[in-house]
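User: I've been trying to design a sequence by hand for this structure and keep getting stuck. Would you show me what you'd pick, starting by listing the structure so we're on the same page?

Assistant: Good idea, let's start from the same input. This is the structure you sent:
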């Protein structure tokens, strides 16, 4: 309740360079989850946080248990325009970080840490919805725990392969 009150007291938006908070769903062949976007210090740029159930191996039937990861992405506004119906169209991209307990190519679960990169397009509609299409690449390490002291640290391969998979985020924009 307190969070909702704080969100409603944010300064009003300027059309095209809106400062808003939005929350909603994240969908990708890589996983499903929850996304929250906050305004950042740069005009039109945002910070996105994601909590995702990683579906690597689940969709293909190699595993019945998804992994979990958290990500934070800084999305710089690269270019944008307001369409004739009032919808704002933006190109954005930027760096981020990811951490999670995930399944990698070797089939084993383990701790993954990565630096991320994001590129995408965003539609800010006149109704309080934001639709984003993009892709994110995770460059990092994966530590497979095999029990006892038997660990293996390797490159997080699913993070590289996942960079070519589309992501869709649909969020509700709070004013």
């Amino acid at each position: 309740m307190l969070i909702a009150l704080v969100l409603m007291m944010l300064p009003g938006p300027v059309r095209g360079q809106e400062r808003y908070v939005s929350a909603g769903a994240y969908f990708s062949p890589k996983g499903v989850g929850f996304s929250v976007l906050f305004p950042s210090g740069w005009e039109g740029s945002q910070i996105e946080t994601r909590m995702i159930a990683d579906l690597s191996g689940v969709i293909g039937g190699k595993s019945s248990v998804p992994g979990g990861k958290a990500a934070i992405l800084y999305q710089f506004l690269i270019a944008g325009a307001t369409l004739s119906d009032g919808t704002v169209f933006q190109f954005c991209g930027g760096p981020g970080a990811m951490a999670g307990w995930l399944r990698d190519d070797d089939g084993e679960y383990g701790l993954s840490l990565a630096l991320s990169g994001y590129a995408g397009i965003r539609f800010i509609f006149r109704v309080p919805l934001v639709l984003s299409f993009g892709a994110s690449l995770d460059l990092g390490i994966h530590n497979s725990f095999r029990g006892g002291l038997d660990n293996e640290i390797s490159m997080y391969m699913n993070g590289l392969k996942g960079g070519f998979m589309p992501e869709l985020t649909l969020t509700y924009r709070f004013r």
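That's my pick for every position. To get oriented when you compare it with your attempt: The chain has one domain: 21-174. Helices lie at 2-8, 157-161.
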